[in-house]
Amino acid sequence: MSFLDEFQANLESLPIILQKKYALLRDLDKSLREIQRQNEQLCEQEIKDIQRGVKAGNITADTLLIRFSDEALDEQKHSIRIADEKVALAVQAYDLVDAHIQQLDQYLKKFDEELSRERESVAATTLPGSSLDGSAKSGRGSGGGRGGHKKTHLAAAAATTAATSANSTGIELDCPVDPNEPTYCFCQQVSYGEMVACDNPHCTIEWFHFGCVGLKEQPKGKWYCSDCASLKNRRKGR
């Protein structure tokens, strides 16, 4: 059983367990209120009896000698025990939820690490400066078309660490980059972040950064850069 399957199995039983604990808490709270009500009535009656006994001279008005009956004291102790039991149940419910939260944090951390490794692996194989620079560009006129070129890619961590300091408008990079690294887009910078390919097979630039062309997500259908779109419109107007 994987970590996720185990977590889901434990999570499915959590609501039932919590429901039982909350139901027991309600029953204890109901019993506690009833015991407290009865004990208050008993204590009030005993106070009245003591006051009458003091007035009649049957009881010495000495606060050190005046006390509630054993029955009233036992009821108070019983109330305290029920209250302590309620607190213990609440702590158990809290610890149970907290344990699931910690388990979820561990799963998310592990999942994030695996996702980062997958992204780095995909970026290393789809970066225009590596495989796309040779195979994809040389195959622009092939029968496979340019539909696959439009897929966005993430920059490789090792090759484009310096590029992350550039903003979405294509400002000069703050950190030096490899002079042999191919450049793309209108900004003439290296590959970084998410990029999109122009669907014009004769585009002189081919790859563009999302921020430089005003994109926030992968375009649907064919997409042309501003230069190729203008050229296409001029040809239609003739």
Feature tags:
4 helices, two-stranded antiparallel sheet, about 240 residues, mainly alpha, Herpes Virus-1
Provide structural commentary:
With 238 residues, the chain is mainly alpha-helical. The protein has 2 domains: 3-126; 142-237, Herpes Virus-1. It has 4 helices and 2 strands, in the order αααββα. It has helices spanning 3-56, 70-126, 128-138, 226-237; strands spanning 195-197, 207-209. It has a two-stranded antiparallel ribbon with strand order 1-2. Mean pLDDT is 75; it is low at 130-175. InterPro entries: ING_fam (IPR028651), ING_N_histone-binding (IPR024610), Zinc_finger_PHD-type_CS (IPR019786), Znf_FYVE_PHD (IPR011011), Znf_PHD (IPR001965), Znf_PHD-finger (IPR019787), Znf_RING/FYVE/PHD (IPR013083). Residues 182-231 form the PHD-type domain. Belongs to the ING family. It is found in: Nucleus. Component of an histone acetyltransferase complex.
How is this fold's topology laid out?
Elements (H helix, E strand, L loop, with lengths): L2 H54 L13 H57 L1 H11 L56 E3 L9 E3 L16 H12 L1
Helix pairs in contact: 1-2
